[in-house]
Design a protein that fits this description.
The protein is an alpha+beta fold. It folds into three domains: 66 residues, Winged helix-like DNA-binding domain superfamily/Winged helix DNA-binding domain (Arc Repressor Mutant, subunit A, Orthogonal Bundle); 67 residues, Alpha-Beta Plaits (2-Layer Sandwich); 86 residues, no CATH class. Helix content is 56%, strand content 13%. The protein contains eleven helices and seven strands. The chain has a four-stranded antiparallel beta sheet with strand order 5-6-4-7, sandwiched between helices. The protein has a three-stranded antiparallel beta sheet with strand order 1-3-2. The longest helix has 29 residues. The radius of gyration is 21 Å and the shape is globular.
């Protein structure tokens, strides 16, 4: 909701607007206010008082985070350049006892398109992501104990077997199938339903940059449901965009 409606406008939003919009999604007022407080505690939002009322505004870090997320989400699924056959390989050492650090590493590298192999090795089929990987490792304090390589596959084993070790593409396709089933025939009949449909569409689609490693077509099954899902996402988002944004403006002015 913040990325779809608040970020593009670049202006504060009243608590009541957010509570009303979240209420359309089935969130109780108390839970909505708690969610706002948690988001502020995480540094995404800041509030200002106007009498007994409050308005919320994205912080600089919140805008940066949501802008990067929006760029990744809305461009996700578009075909890129032809693959040059190069793999980016990371060797990362994390002490076994540091479970939280291992979780953060896995989450951030997965978002960047990496898959895990045995022995602390990670692979990505986009060698241009080395700078992004370096930033992640520096942020987590792991750069000094990590190493990167850019290489082509040799003559031992197959690249398809390598992909199977690093990613469960079958599970990803199942998620795409669920997405297609949920939105392929959805036709919201009112302004409230359109805002809910658009918000839910983006909410569900934003999961895929974490699930789908964005492999080149050479390494994907044929056909690949991710292509169909991406076309559906863009079609639905474009079709509902004007009505959803207009209804948000009405909620904000009420």
């Amino acid at each position: 909701m913040l990325g779809e409606y608040v970020l593009p406008r670049g202006e504060p939003v009243w608590t009541a607007t957010l509570v009303r919009a979240l209420g359309l999604l089935g969130t109780a007022e108390k839970a909505s206010r708690q969610a706002l407080a948690r988001t502020a505690a995480e540094g995404w939002l800041t509030s200002s008082k106007h009498g007994r009322l409050a308005r919320w505004e994205l912080t600089d870090s919140g805008r940066r985070l949501l802008s990067e997320g929006a760029r990744r989400i809305y461009s996700f699924g578009q075909d890129g350049d032809a693959w040059d056959g190069r793999w980016l390989v990371l060797l990362v050492t994390v002490p076994t006892a540091m479970r939280e650090l291992r979780h953060r590493l896995r989450t951030r590298l997965a978002w960047a398109g990496f898959g895990a192999l045995a022995g602390g090795a990670w692979i990505c089929a986009d060698a241009s992501r080395e700078a992004e990987a370096s930033g992640i490792l520096h942020d987590l304090g792991l750069a000094a104990t990590s190493t990167s390589f850019v290489a082509h596959h040799g003559g031992i084993g197959t690249q398809n077997a390598l992909v199977e070790q690093a990613w469960d593409l079958g599970a990803v396709e199942n998620k795409y199938a669920e997405f297609i089933e949920a939105f392929a025939t959805l036709e919201p009949a009112s302004a409230d339903e359109t805002l809910v449909a658009q918000t839910t569409l983006v909410h569900e689609w934003r999961r895929f940059p974490l699930l789908d490693p964005r492999l080149p077509r050479d390494l994907l099954p044929d056909p690949w449901l991710g292509s169909e899902a991406a076309i559906l996402f863009r079609a639905c988002h474009d079709r509902w965009h004007q009505a959803a944004q207009g209804h948000w403006d009405k909620l904000a002015s009420a």
